[in-house]
TrEMBL record:
Immunoglobulin domain boundaries: 21-115, 120-210, 221-315
SUPFAM superfamilies cross-referenced by the UniProt entry: Immunoglobulin
Keyword Transferase: no
Membrane-spanning parts: 195-217
Record keywords: Membrane, Transmembrane, Transmembrane helix
Protein name: Immunoglobulin domain-containing protein
Length: 338
């Protein structure tokens, strides 16, 4: 490959403006892709601004170049450039050349910008899972402070010179990454609120502030299980103050429902099932007939309904260090202490 585009057959130059985006931006610390769509049967070559040598190339499906060898960059088979970990140094103009078998070239220039000091306005996460509010701050920040709705004076958590502190951090319920992102260790419904983060940047007289609303998503794990002969639970995580929850067996056979504090339905009347105040289904004594698909319909406080499906299976393993519960038939095995 010639080291300078001037050595290429310039008489056949074709500037195809729809081959690459002319401007791309992505977040600091993330992986970014400069999308292109070349159908080159010879090679694609990426340059940094006025460099004479390509830092990464794709020739007949083979990747090479110092950018590829250092694992800083990658190139896709359609010629798109991948920046593995976006840093401020990647903010520049790139040049890409595509050659066909007759050395006819397509040349395009792309400006890449780094997005910094940014937080999304809304974030959501599943109840019971770990959650994160991912922010992207300039790497030379001095202090990141997070507040929740309980106090705008007492920080929930703070990161100052890589040192973490605050009531949320001390409780073990929150953490903060070195890039300033907030981590919620285990999402609960009380985490559905507005958070505020303040960043103090070295060399800047003003501070950067963002307000983020975190939403908690209700859900039922789609696969749950229990042991034969024992009480079983199909646990769901619904927001409190819902209007009604109804459980059905497969083929929509009505089973049990909870409306207000009233429980009704054939499953409740025959004393095989119950339902907790949070909407979870209770199987009073698990048998093989409970190995089935269940459907639950929730009507929330705003009369909006959502449906979830759960497959319930009987456990076949053993549990307990001293006593083992094994198999679908409810066999109890006792282990003697030696």
């Amino acid at each position: 490959m010639p080291s300078d585009e001037r050595k290429i057959n310039r008489s056949n130059l074709r500037a195809i403006n729809d081959m690459c985006s002319n401007h791309v931006n992505d977040y600091y610390g993330e992986e970014a892709i400069i999308d292109c769509c070349f159908q080159s049967d010879y090679g694609v070559y990426w340059y940094k601004e006025t460099d004479e040598e390509p830092f990464i190339r794709l020739e007949s499906g083979v990747k090479s170049g110092r950018g590829y060898d250092s694992n800083e960059y990658d190139v896709l088979q359609n010629g798109s450039l991948v920046i593995k970990n976006v840093q401020l140094k990647h903010e520049r103009e790139y040049k890409v050349i595509s050659l066909d078998s007759e050395l006819r070239d397509q040349i395009f220039r792309v400006t890449f910008s780094v997005v910094e000091n940014y937080c999304p306005s809304q974030v959501s996460g599943l109840y019971g899972e770990e959650g994160m509010i991912s922010c992207y701050f300039r790497p030379n920040f001095q202090t990141i402070i997070w507040f929740d709705e309980t106090s705008t004076r007492d920080p929930l958590i703070r990161l100052e010179h890589s040192t973490k502190s605050g009531r949320g951090y001390d409780s073990g319920k929150y953490d903060v990454l070195q890039n300033g992102s907030l981590v919620i260790k285990t999402i609960e419904f009380r985490n559905e609120q507005e958070y505020i983060t303040v960043a103090v940047i070295f060399g800047f007289t003003n501070i950067t502030e963002f307000s983020i609303v975190f939403f908690v998503i209700e859900h039922c794990p789609t696969q749950q299980s229990g042991f034969s002969g024992e009480k079983g639970n199909i646990i769901c995580h619904f927001k409190p103050n819902f209007n009604k929850v109804s459980w059905y067996l497969e083929q929509d056979k009505p089973l049990i429902q909870l409306e207000g504090s009233n429980i009704s339905g054939p499953g409740y009347e025959n004393e095989k099932y119950s339902v907790t105040q949070n909407g979870s289904l209770v199987i009073r004594r698990v048998t093989e007939e409970n190995e089935a698909h269940y459907r639950v319909i929730l009507i929330d406080a705003n009369n909006i309904s959502t449906a979830h499906r759960v497959e319930f299976k009987l456990e076949t393993g053993c549990w307990g260090s001293q006593y083992g519960y094994c198999g679908k038939k409810g066999i109890i095995k006792l282990r003697a202490r030696l």
